[in-house]
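Consider this pair:
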Amino acid sequence: MIVIRRLVDRHRAYTAIFLQGEAPRIFPTSEHEHGRILQIYKQDRRHEGICNDFTDYDPAPSVGGLAAK
């Protein structure tokens, strides 16, 4: 399982990538770069057959590809 998080301090923003059993990888990124990393690892939205924050913690699960209202 991969966990990708955005870390921000007073001066920089970082992307942290955590893999079980390995040391975290933390590196400076812009918002655009961070968003692209999320897309590449399919962590940016709900995807069929992929477990991520949107499948585990989405407060409004999608129905038929659209957000439930």
In short: The CA atoms of residues 1 and 53 lie 12 Å apart. The two ends are 30 Å apart (CA to CA). The chain has one domain: 2-59.
